[in-house]
Amino acid sequence: MKEESTVERSSSLGSTIATIGSILIAVGFAWLIADNWNVFPDILKVLILLLITASALIGGVLFRTHDYYKIGSSLIVLGSLLFTLTIFLIAQIYNLSTGLQGNAWLILICWIGVALIAYSLDSSSSLIIAMSEFLIWIMLQHIAFAETSRNSSIFGPMALSYLLVGVIFYGLSLLHKSQNHKFHKVYMWWTLFYITIYTFIFTFLRLIPSIWPSGITMSSSALIFLIVLFIFALISFLSGVIASLSSGKTTIKEIIVFMGTIVLLLIMILSSSIVSSQVGTCYAKNCYDFDTKASCLVSNAGYDGRGCLWEQNQCAEKNCYSLKSESTCTSAQIEDQICKWQNNFCTTVSCNSFSTKDECLLNSKANCFWQLTSQNGDLGYCDQNYSRNIRVETPNSDEKYQTCSKLSNQRNSCLSKDICGWRGGELGYGYYGQTTSIPFSLWALWIFSNIIFIILILAIIAYGTMNGSQKIVNLGILFFTIDLISRYIGFWIDYYRSSIAILSIIGGILLIVGGWLIEKWRKNLIEKVHQNENR
Question: What values do phi and psi take at 376, rounded to 5?
Fold first, then answer.
C-alpha cells in the first residue's frame, strides 16, 4: 500500500510539473503571437484562434481519458473560455460586431457553443460558464432594445426576463434529476443561488422605484422577447415537473414552494409600478424643460435670473452663449451682457478687453468700471463690478430650489407648482441631499420583499437539511448573514448622524452575539444533514 501511495504521489507530482511546463509553452507561444499579431493576415489569425481553442479541448479530453481528470477538466474550461474569446476576436477582425445588438448576437453564439461543449464533453464547469453567459446575453439584449426604443422601460422587462430564467433553470434541474444526470446538482444549486441573489437585490429600498419609472411599458421587441422566453420557461418547467414526478425524484410540496416564490416575486415586480408613479425627484425647472416658444418666453426659470430665450426651436438660458447665429448674437438685447460673434461662436465681451477709459465707461451695461492704478492721472485698467451682478430672481433661486425639493416623492404636489418639474423612477432627495418623505406604498413593498427573502432563506435551509446537502444549508446561512449585515449598514447610513459611538457599540454587540448564534445554528443543521445522509 505504501508503494502504491508513493507511486500515486509521484504520478501526481509529475503530472503537475508537466502541466506547468505545458502552460509555460502555451504562454510563450501566446506571447510570440501577440507580438506579431498585426503582421499576420486575417485568415491566419482565425486559424490560430481555432487551433488554440481546439488544442485546449482535445488536450482536456486526452488528459481525462488517461486518468488525469482534474487537469483535463481545467483544459476543457480553458477551451470554453477560449471559444468565447475566439468568437469576439473573429468578429473584431472582420468588423462583424456593430453596436449593442451585434454584441448581443455574439454572446448568444458564445453561450450556445459553450453549452454544447459542456454537454458533449461532460463538463460541469463549462455549464456554469454557459449559464453565466446566458445571463449576460439577457442583459445585453434588453439594453439593445432600450437603445432602439428610448422611451420604454428597461429594468421592468429585464426583471421579468430574469424571473423566467429562474423558472428555466429549475425546470432543467428537475429534468436532469429525473434522468439521474450529474448536471442536476449544478442546475439545482445554481437555481437556488440565482433565485436568492435575485430576491436579495429587490430588498433594497432605493431600487424598487426604478423598476417601472414610467409605468408598465415596454417596446414591442422586448414584449416579443418576453413571450418567447415565457414559452421556453413553460416548456422547461412542465417537462421537468412531469419527468420528475413520474420518476419519483421530487415532491409536489417542493414544486408548490418554488412556484409560490415565483408568484410572490412576480406580484412584487408588477406592484412596483404603483410605487414608481409617486416616487421621484421634484426639482426647480430650468429653461430646457419648456418645449414650446410661448411657455419659454414667459418663463423666469433661468439660472441667473435673466429668463429664457427661444433659439433654433429650443428653449435655452438667456445669455450670449445660447445664441447660435451671428445675426441673433450681434443684435441681442440681454441685460448686463454684451454679445460678440467670434470664431463662429457667440460669447460675452469682457471688460478686460477695453484698453481705454472712454471705451470702458461706455460699456456700463456689462458692469465695467475704470480701476485706477495711480492717484495722479487716469492710468488704470477696465474691470468688472461683480457686486452688481448679484441678481434676485422671482422667486429667489435658493428659495425656488428648496420649495421644489421638499416635494420630492410627492408627484401630485410637485406638478401642482408651475416652477417645479418631476423626474420619476428614483428615490427623491431634498435640497441638502436628505431623503424626504417616503410614501407608505414604498415602505409596504419594501417590507414585503424582505419577508419574501427571509421565507426563501428558511426554505433553502429546510430543503438542504431534508436532502442532506451541506452546501445548500451553507448557502442559506450565508445569505441570512449577508442580509443582516446589509440591513445594519443601511441603518448606519440613514441614522449615523444620531450617534456614531452608540451605533458602533450596538452593532458590535449584535455582530458578536449574532455570529455566535448563527454558528450554533449552522452546527445543529449540519448534524441534521449528516443524520439524513446516514438514513
Answer: -110, 135
Instruction: Of 461, 428, 356, give the one whose Cα is nearest residue 209.
Output: 428
- The answer to whether 79 and 60 have CB atoms below 8 angstroms apart is yes
Q: Could you give the C-alpha distances from 434 to 146, 169, 319, in angstroms and in order? A: 31, 41, 33
Which residues is 317 bridged to in the sheet?
Answer: 308
Which DSSP string corresponds to 257-272?
A: HHHHHHHHHHHHHHHH
pTM of the model: 0.71
Cβ(129)–Cβ(114) below 8 Å: yes
Lowest mean pLDDT segment, chosen from 242-256, 470-484, 495-509: 495-509
Angle (deg, nearest 10), helices 220-247 and 124-148: 150
CA 125 to chain centre: 25
- Residue 170 CA to residue 192 CA, distance in Å, equals 9
**Are the C-beta atoms of 222 and 142 separated by less than 8 Å?**
yes
List Cα–Cα distances, 435 to 103, 281, 334, 398, 494, in angstroms. Answer: 38, 10, 38, 18, 9
User: Which cell is 436 given?
Assistant: 424626504
Count of other CB atoms within 10 angstroms of residue 60: 26
Contact of 48 with 40, CB cutoff 8 Å: yes
Domain positions in the chain are 17-148, 152-279+438-535, 284-410
Which residue blocks in 469-499 are alpha helix, DSSP H? 470-495
SS3 content of the chain, % helix, strand, coil (to 5): 70, 5, 25
- 236-245 burial: b if 16+ Cβ within 10 Å, else e: bbeebbebbe
Q: How far is CA 476 from the centre of its chain?
A: 24
Give the alpha-carbon dihedral of 379, 382, 388, 390, to 10 degrees: -140
Residue-wise pLDDT tens digits, 307-362: 787 777 888 777 787 787 778 787 777 766 778 888 888 887 777 777 777 777 77
Mode of pairing for the β-strands spanning 380-384 and 368-372: antiparallel
Three-class SS string for 40-70?
CCHHHHHHHHHHHHHHHHHHHHHHHHCCCHH
Q: How far is CA 373 from CA 14, 370, 379, 381, 429, in A?
A: 88, 9, 6, 7, 50
Mean pLDDT of 381-392: 60
Q: For residue 228, give Cα distances in angstroms to 104, 198, 211, 217, 233.
A: 16, 21, 21, 18, 9
- The predicted structure's pLDDT at residue 23: 56
Q: How far apart are CA 109 and CA 130, in angstroms?
A: 10
The answer to whether 167 and 233 are in contact (CB under 8 A) is yes
pLDDT number for residue 63: 85
Q: For residue 176, what is its C-alpha cell?
A: 436532469
